[in-house]
């Protein structure tokens, strides 16, 4: 789905036959896409080199003798892959540790996976917490422009440019909380708390789904996070508190 925002078009949801990732809306998501692109470039070079060596060995009999029983070639194809793995490992570890880092969150949301819906709790807003369930909207109730199997009746509302922590668990079986545009994914395990954090850099609606096979309706428990301005978020909190 294309979202018109600040004179730019963003792909915040997957499309049919899409090959690339959704557009990132968080710093971690951007780093994940950059890391993926770097690795794909390295893989392309390796594939071309290995393919050229194989074809040369097949069609050039004189070239084949340099690929077997040679100390030099053994050293080369042991040393070069080790160096490549080091170049991949260091940024990978750095990214993994940055994804696990939770830096002074201004807002904490508890997400609980059920068969087959999500429930959310804003526990650190004033004295009264906000709790609600989020169910997928059936195809028969969708309005024009809605995304099939991705729309929910109650969205998670978060303010932009705010560090948000999501504490994740499961109520029955193992689920998985994943929102690709924000670069977050963690298992929701009964009896255990996992946490992820993100910062939405721009307003928008970001879609995710349960990424762990959890039963017959596994594909019918989507996640929708809407990032809004600080003023709209405060208005939404006041509205929810009045409803409760």
From TrEMBL:
Q: Where in the cell is it found?
A: Mitochondrion inner membrane
Q: Which PROSITE patterns match?
A: COX2, COX2_CUA, COX2_TM
The leader peptide range reads: none
Keyword match Transmembrane: yes
Give the transmembrane ranges.
Answer: 39-59, 71-90
Q: Which residues form a coiled coil?
A: none
Keyword Phosphoprotein found: no
Every copy of the Cytochrome oxidase subunit II transmembrane region profile domain together lies at 13-103
Q: Which GO terms describe its molecular function?
A: copper ion binding; cytochrome-c oxidase activity; oxidoreductase activity
User: GO CC terms for this protein?
Assistant: mitochondrial inner membrane
> Which Gene3D superfamilies does this entry report, sorted A to Z?
1.10.287.90, Cupredoxins - blue copper proteins
**How is its cofactor bound, per UniProt?**
Binds a copper A center.
**What cofactors are annotated for this protein?**
Cu cation
List UniProt keywords, sorted A-Z.
Copper, Electron transport, Magnesium, Membrane, Metal-binding, Mitochondrion, Mitochondrion inner membrane, Respiratory chain, Translocase, Transmembrane, Transmembrane helix, Transport
**Residue span, Cytochrome oxidase subunit II copper A binding domain:** 104-239
> Which InterPro entries does the record associate with it?
CcO_II, CcO_II-like_C, CcO_II_C, Copper_CuA, Cupredoxin, Cyt_c_oxidase_su2, Cyt_c_oxidase_su2_TM_dom, Cyt_c_oxidase_su2_TM_sf
* Biological function: Component of the cytochrome c oxidase, the last enzyme in the mitochondrial electron transport chain which drives oxidative phosphorylation. The respiratory chain contains 3 multisubunit complexes succinate dehydrogenase (complex II, CII), ubiquinol-cytochrome c oxidoreductase (cytochrome b-c1 complex, complex III, CIII) and cytochrome c oxidase (complex IV, CIV), that cooperate to transfer electrons derived from NADH and succinate to molecular oxygen, creating an electrochemical gradient over the inner membrane that drives transmembrane transport and the ATP synthase.
Q: What is this protein called?
A: Cytochrome c oxidase subunit 2
Q: Which organism is it from?
A: Blackfordia virginica
